[in-house]
Amino acid sequence: MVGGGQLARMTHQAAIALGQNLRVLANAPDDAAAQVTPNVVIGSHTDLEDLRRVAAGADALTFDHEHVPTELLEKLVAEGINVAPPPQALMHAQDKLHMRRRLEALGAAVPRYAEIQSIVELDAFAQRIAGPVVVKAVRGGYDGRGVRMARDPLHAREIAATFLADGVPVMAEEQVNLRRELSALVARSPFGQGAVWPVVETVQRDGICVLVIAPAPELPDETASAAQQLAMRVAAELGVVGVLAVELFETTDGALLVNELAMRPHNSGHWTMDGARTSQFEQHLRAVLDYPLGGTDAIVPVTVMANVLGAPQPPAMTLDERLHHLFARMPDARVHLYGKAERPGRKLGHINFLGDDVGKLRERAELAAHWMSHAQWRAGDDAERSDEKERRKMSDGWDPHD
Ligand SMILES: Nc1ncnc2c1ncn2[C@@H]1O[C@H](COP(=O)(O)OP(=O)(O)O)[C@@H](O)[C@H]1O
Ligand SMILES: [Mg+2]
């Protein structure tokens, strides 16, 4: 697996039970996955030699992020490496513009969008949609890095100008009036078998997923099946091998628009580790290795997952001590920590709660995650102001393992 982040760490966990041995290409020995598997290659996902080293002798090469240049992957394919998902599929998860165009061609509804190469083009787009605009970096973004909500046309210009000046390819789209966000998670094997989990609701704050509710509450059956069928069709048409997440917007008038695709285990599937018959990590391995896929039904009526994000100021109490207190108060919390150093906004772990009352589970999940982040038993009052977050986003380097 290319990438040594938490997704690789949890895939390794699943590999153990399958009697498989996951080799990981990590940037550093203290990456989340490198800490737990002895089979580590330290190197870069943009270096062909490093990719060759990690792929040598492996049954399949797969990914914990989508940032490996496809030219390098094409070379590996030519050398006989089984790259899963293959580069022709993966390119749709790497490039938001490419993805949008392909989804449109498949007949999927997407937000109105345009490629932006100049401020003149941005102005023309803003005029055409006559509403608020989102400006996005076409490549390299994740967790809302590379996504900016413009407050007004002038702000949109400013953002686009900053990106363009840095040589970052840009697209603009309409700001969709969201009722909520959903995710349809599926897996597809080379044999052609598909498996779909229940459609979930995802809650984002500042572009980062903070909460997932499985299944999405009060989603009409027809809408849920339409989302699942769409995701399976996208997986088949694009030739995806492994897990595919289709991020969806549910608009205020009940329509579904596709936001983006991820071809790997995804944050919206972390609930499956405890709440579904087969976890997304095991399923990704089964698909990549062409085993028959596992059952995807939920084993309880509701699972709520909350992400533990690094607080603006890491608390004095250690994470381990916080965990002691959490378990004392909430013995049913299913905790998954990634072994990462605490940094503001960084994904440090997640917690699943299983049961049947969405409201109560959500409250407990938020409380637990807030405690683990802040060492305070009080949910929902993150002290950091959003403009400070915005500034941090602009100034931080992007680390695909955050
Ligand atoms: N067109 C849009 N309208 C409204 N909200 C949006 C739009 N695009 C993105 N967002 C919000 O920003 C989040 C991150 O955007 P996304 O394109 O998924 O980027 P990333 O690659 O960082 O996940 C989305 O989950 C959603 O909350
Ligand atoms: Mg996204």
Mean pLDDT: 94
- For the record, the CATH architecture of the largest domain stands as 2-Layer Sandwich
Beta fraction: 15-25%
Query: What hetero molecules are in the model?
Result: adenosine-5'-diphosphate, magnesium ion
Helix content: 25-40%
Q: Tell me the series of helices and strands, N- to C-terminal.
A: HEEHHHHEHEEHEEEEEHEEHHEHEEHH
- In the CATH scheme, what's the topology name of the largest domain? D-amino Acid Aminotransferase, Chain A, domain 1
N/C terminus separation: 17 Å
Low-confidence stretches: 381-385
- Counting DSSP H or I runs of 4 or more residues, the number of helices is 13
CATH class of the largest domain: Alpha Beta
Number of strands: 15
**Number of structural domains:** 3
Main sheet characteristics: 9 strands, antiparallel
Radius of gyration: 20 Å
Protein name: N5-carboxyaminoimidazole ribonucleotide synthase
Family: Belongs to the PurK/PurT family.
Keywords: ATP-binding, Ligase, Nucleotide-binding, Purine biosynthesis
Domain ATP-grasp: 100-289
Structural summary, described in words:
With 402 residues, the chain is of the alpha+beta class. It folds into 3 domains: 6-83, Rossmann fold (3-Layer(aba) Sandwich); 112-174, Dna Ligase, domain 1 (2-Layer Sandwich); 178-374, ATP-grasp fold, B domain (D-amino Acid Aminotransferase, Chain A, domain 1). The protein is 35% helix and 22% strand. It has helices spanning 6-17, 48-55, 70-78, 87-94, 96-105, 119-129, 153-165, 221-238, 272-275, 280-288, 319-329, 358-374, 386-395, and strands at 24-26, 40-42, 113-116, 133-137, 147-149, 170-174, 178-188, 194-196, 200-205, 208-214, 242-251, 256-262, 302-309, 334-337, 347-355. The strands form 3 sheets. Strands 7, 8, 9, 10, 11, 12, 13, 14 and 15 form a 9-stranded antiparallel sheet that branches. The chain has a 4-stranded antiparallel sheet with strand order 3-6-4-5, with helices on both faces. A two-stranded parallel sheet has the order 1-2. The protein is globular, with a radius of gyration of 20 Å. The protein starts with 5 loop residues before the first helix and ends in a 7-residue tail after the last helix. 45% of the residues are buried. The structure holds adenosine-5'-diphosphate and magnesium ion. Residues 100-289 form the ATP-grasp domain. Belongs to the PurK/PurT family.
